[in-house]
Amino acid sequence: MKARAAIRSGSFYALVAAIVVYAVFPLYYAIVTSFKSGSALFRPDLVPPGIDLENYVLLFREQPFAGAIVNSLVVATSVVVLSLFVGVTASFALARVQFRGRSLLLVTILGVSMFPQIAVLSGMFQLVRALGLYNTLPGLIVSYMIFTLPFTVWVLTTFMRELPKELEEAAIMDGATSWVIVTRVFMPLLWPALVTTGLLAFIGAWNEFLFALTFTLTNTQRTVPVAIALISGASQHELPWGIIMAASVVVTLPLVVLVLAFQRKIISGLTVGAVKG
Fold first, then answer.
1. What angle do CA 179, 146, 141 make, to 5 degrees?
2. Alpha carbons 139 and 74: distance in angstroms, whole number
3. Domain interval for residue 152
4. What is the pTM of this model?
5. Rounded to whole angstroms, what are the CA distances from 147 to 35, 74, 120, 123?
6. Considering the domain boundaries, does residue 10 fall inside one?
7. Which candidate, 94, 114, 146, 121, places its Cα nearest to that of 215?
8. How far is CA 103 from CA 63, 81, 108, 110, in A?
9. pLDDT over threshold 50, residue 257
10. Is residue 79 a contact partner of residue 148, using CB atoms and an 8 Å limit?
11. How far is CA 272 from CA 67, 194, 209, 277, in A?
């Protein structure tokens, strides 16, 4: 029995180690490569021979990357704020207000998120052009809402249904309006779900490439995924892999820090409602 338990324990930890290596190694190799230049880029060193920050200096000196980071921050933050605001209010209506067609509406909202981006690209392009938002950050914000809002509404509606009805009834007895119930009663209880959905919406908007490539035209309006794809070297046929790796590290590490900082909230948000007591 002890031998079987030891084998099971060893197999479990070996599997966990393999998953960690598989998930972390690409980022680690990108960090190592970002410290190399010249012929050293083509040597598969697992440990950097030295700390050379030339690629990072060239990234911000020769490429319009700082502006792209600002654009991505503005777009992703705006998408998160709008998605959470609309998501909270819509989820309250879908979870707490009884009306005909509520289930059909919720299924329709979820169905919208199942369409691939390429399927709605031409329609979104016409909409963005008609609104006069082509090559603007608001145009990206509007287009990103199509894939962040359905997920946010669906998840927040699920969590909203799990909240005790007694809290709402007590607030109504005290004369609270629907807005007060949402903001003063439900919002403090929804923080794990808000952090989870907000962070996922931020990551989705931060990493989005197809809409950003299609709906922007100039470097002043482009976001980081497009800026990385358009990084050029000294000649037309040269790919500056060191600078590309440095850019990948710059845009990835903040997401890693966010996930690590809010990991408890994320886990709590993903498990709320899984077990009823």
1. 80
2. 12
3. 69-271
4. 0.83
5. 36, 17, 11, 14
6. no
7. 121
8. 49, 26, 9, 11
9. yes
10. yes
11. 39, 12, 32, 11
Contact between residue 50 and residue 35 where contact means Cβ atoms under 8 Å apart: yes
pLDDT digits (tens, 9 = 90+) for 188-236: 888 888 888 888 899 999 999 999 999 998 888 999 999 988 886 544 4
In the block, residue with structure tokens 């084998």 = 7
Query: Exposed (0-12), middle (13-18) or buried (19+): which is 65, by Cβ within 10 Å?
Result: buried
Q: Are 201 and 152 in contact (CB under 8 A)?
A: yes
Here the tokens at position 213 are 């490539």
Q: How far apart are CA 158 and CA 250, in angstroms?
A: 35
Tokens of 269: 């948000």
> Pick from 51, 59, 55, 32: which is nearest to 242 by CA?
55
Judged by DSSP in three states, 273 sits in coil
Q: Which residue has the tokens 């704020």?
A: 81
Structure confidence by residue, pLDDT tens digits, 20-69:
888 888 888 888 888 887 777 777 777 777 777 888 888 888 788 889 99
Q: At what angle do helices 137-162 and 102-112 cross, to 10 degrees?
A: 140
Confirm whether 161 is domain-assigned.
yes
Closest of 247, 254, 196 to residue 223, by C-alpha: 247
Residue 204 resides in a domain = yes
Whole-number Å distance between alpha carbons of 94 and 113: 17
Question: In angstroms, how far is the first alpha carbon of the chain from the final one?
Answer: 34
Domain at 224, CATH number: 1.10.3720.10
**Domains held by the chain: number:** 1
The structure tokens listed for 145 are 């809402």
- Note the Cα 168 to chain centre separation in Å: 32
Residue 197: other Cβ atoms inside 10 A: 27
User: What is the chain's length?
Assistant: 277
- Type of residue found at 257: V
